[in-house]
Design a protein that fits this description.
single chain, 299 residues, mainly alpha, 15 helices, 81% helix, globular
Length: 299
């Protein structure tokens, strides 16, 4: 395995750990005292301030790349954050993990094959089939038995997965580096969310909820809003869109484990089976096992 790919794998795995925590803590926030807009604003507004020098250097808008950049804002900015955080109000953590990060690799693979004629190979194809089986095991039961509100949440989460897949595919056509992309998307998203996201945070702080606000700042702004995005974009650059996206299927396992002490959500046998199956699918879809065994890149 080359050093470049090793760095890519490490970057994506670290991003997965952060995003697992993001799912659990965002679900905890939006069913509590925070609005989806306030959570989304923390995810973009603070990173926009931290990364302001990068967006000034690269430019606020890529010249001649308007369409792919709009897809990046749609898939990684305010629209994605609002639709997913609203979906989290109606669906449990296991549903979120199954319907967003597990569905996204499948959508990225489909888009990559259709748009760029990317060849997945038999091992990666079988890996994506296992990912689909994991999705069915984790979310199938709750989807079939869902009430109206829960079904609405599932629709929002699936829409968010499609948005994110568009971002993964469009990223390579914008011409920004990983950190420049985070800065630009955060700037425009934070600006759009400011009127709706900031007042609820001020209200929460004035009511003595300083600790909760600080925890969300750490998870949303620094961890998920800056560090994870940069790490994941590095993974895309070094591994390719579908291979990097495959690793995101580990997120449900991380989110489910964190939700046990945080929200007292205990996974049942179906959820455990789904997490294990998805993890095996991720390993095949990413090509890691083939590289280790053959000591050469997979297609």
């Amino acid at each position: 395995m080359s050093n470049s790919r090793a760095v890519g794998y490490l970057a994506v795995l670290c991003a997965v750990l952060i995003w697992g925590a993001w799912i659990a803590f965002t679900r905890f926030a939006v069913v509590g005292n925070f609005t989806p807009a306030s959570v989304a604003f923390l995810r973009t507004g603070v990173p926009a301030l931290i990364l302001a020098p990068f967006v000034v250097r690269a430019g606020f808008w890529p010249k001649g790349r308007t369409i792919p950049f709009l897809f990046c804002i749609l898939g990684a900015g305010a629209p994605f954050l609002l639709i997913v955080s609203n979906g989290m109000r109606y669906a449990q953590t296991a549903d979120v993990g199954a319907l967003v990060p597990c569905t996204m690799p499948l959508l990225v693979a489909v888009l990559s094959v259709l748009l760029f004629k990317e060849k997945l190979g038999w091992a990666r194809t079988f890996g994506f089939i296992l990912c689909a089986a994991g999705i069915a095991a984790i979310g199938g039961r709750s989807i079939l038995a869902a009430a109206g509100d829960t079904s609405f949440g599932h629709v929002l989460l699936l829409g968010g997965a499609l948005f994110w897949a568009c971002y993964v595919v469009a990223f390579r056509f914008v011409g920004f580096s990983a950190i420049e992309m985070v800065a630009a998307v955060s700037f425009w998203s934070g600006l759009a969310l400011l009127p709706w996201g900031l007042p609820p945070l001020i209200h929460a702080a004035s009511n003595g909820e300083h600790y909760q606000v600080l925890v969300q700042v750490a998870i949303q702004s620094v961890g998920s809003g800056v560090i994870a995005y940069i790490l994941y974009n590095i993974g895309i650059e070094r591994l390719g869109a579908s291979r990097a996206a495959a690793f995101v299927a580990f997120v449900p396992a991380v989110a489910t484990l964190i939700a046990i002490p945080l929200s007292n959500e205990i996974p049942d046998a179906a959820s455990i089976f789904g997490v294990v199956t998805t993890g095996l699918g991720v390993l095949l879809a990413s090509g890691v096992l083939n590289e280790i065994l053959s000591k050469k890149p997979v297609e």
